[in-house]
Amino acid sequence: MSRILIYDTTLRDGSQAEGISYSLSDKIKIAQKLDIFGVDYIEGGWPASNPKDTEFFKQAANINWQNAKIAAFGSTCKAGLAPSDDANLRALVECGAPVACIVGKSWDFHVVKALGTTLEENLRMIEESVRFLKEAGLEVIFDAEHFFDGHKNNPNYALQTIKAAQRGGADVITLCDTNGGCLPGEITEIITSIKKWIEVPLGIHAHNDGELAVANSLVAIDAGVTMVQGTFNGYGERCGNANLCSIIPNIELKTKYHCKAGQSLKHLTETAFYISEVSNTRLSKNQPFVGSGAFAHKGGIHVSAIMKSPETYEHLPPDKVGNKRRVLVSELAGTSNLVEKARELNVTLDPKSKKTKELIKKIKELEYEGYQFEGAEASLELFLRKNLGDYIDHFKLEIFKVNTEKRGTSEFSSEAIIKIRVDDKVVHTAAEGEGPVHAMDNALRKALTEFFPVLSNMYLEDYKVRVLEESKATQAKVRVLITSRDQESMWSTVGVSTNIIEASWQALIESMDYALLKEKKKRELQSVAQGGE
Predict the structure, then answer these.
(1) What is the arrangement of strands in the sheet containing 459-467, beginning at the earlier edge strand?
(2) What are the residues facing 452 on neighbouring strands?
(3) Which helix (H) or strand (E) holds 36?
(4) What is the topology classification, in CATH, of domain 5-278?
(5) Sequence-ordered list of residues with C-beta below 8 angstroms from that of 227, at least 6 positions apart, any chain
(6) Which pLDDT band, with edges at 50, 70 and 90, does 212 fall under?
(7) What pTM, to 2 d.p., does this model score?
(8) Topology of 395-451 in CATH?
């Protein structure tokens, strides 16, 4: 079984994505996570470009890497300059990384227009730069920038550039679809045509501008490359780079090839989420393999089928990549959806009962009004338990009022006044906040924490508002989704109204209701465990 090397460039190419900026600490954390996962190479950055990357390599030199080699990125020497006199190449030698990856031009158009030099001088720059780094004792990877576009425009010259890298002693020559515009057939044809001239192992570096970076990487492997460059979650400039979260499981589970990281597939989803958190980005729900929706089923026919045999609508078991199957409940739901989702929530439903059919009808009516339970499973569980008589209200609202005030040029201020009843006791209190929702949250906590101390451990994680009927302008309904969390878990609740305060109140109340339900279930489990002892 042929082994494919995985070269991760999340910390360099991935950091060029809009909205991503890594601190030194971020880069170290991500590199260590990638190393544990099992990638073969981690490109840490460009030591000649900024002090942060220089410091990264200093710290990396003192870390005991379990699986990966650390690579430093740079470019060939400048036109008219000897490699030994080029500060960029000297930085690669001095940074302490055992691997140097240098980029050079392979498209004649770029040589003349971008570098402003001759085609012959560019070949000299490539060969001598690679040789200089090899003589310094480094493993050298040559990235042939724009190779496929260059080959389509001037195949002979594109071939000469990688031959120059081969003469210089490159360990791997990576063919780059830098503009991301090639089709899989072109990738296969071009790699096949140049293989007879090149003895050095080949790699692929694909960008995703045509939504084909993963496909192009996989066909390149079939065509004979043995190294794949990419980024976790597909981060990168413009439309991103080849997504290693898709490439690695496809290699390991669906081809005759193998990669070391394939042994860690059960940690793929966890690693993708970790890197997205450190990158301060949200992992796309529909990202293949690792997204929360990658194995989510909504259509009633689909759910009915997967309950009998999951492979009817899943290309692989989700636990193979550390993900999990989810059943969504919406206006598209059938009995199978609701029964399966209820089972996940430890609520028993009889699929043949009249009550179950009534619940489905109610859910569809609520979704028609604007509710969305697939993103608010805490609200769904509360809905089911209340309609099944398996829930007792912890408190009852008597009255609440929210005032927002602005005087002259002063800042807005908000105050919430609330009266609630807990058993036979009435609590009347008020609290201020940065805005009306914050004030309501503060007032509720102030009133309820005395009775339910567990509420002091939860907090609002996220707050989203969606306008549902844009044509009605300020009279439109809005849907508020609140995500809350405590030290153990995270949950979401939903509210809908033409009044944003009312919608927020609904979602806020249910977030606290659910926290109290969680605590009740926790106590019941502890009681059962103690009884068993």
Answers:
(1) 459-467, 478-485, 490-497
(2) none
(3) helix 24-37
(4) TIM Barrel (3.20.20)
(5) 4, 5, 6, 7, 141, 172, 174, 201, 202, 203, 204
(6) very high
(7) 0.72
(8) Double Stranded RNA Binding Domain (3.30.160)
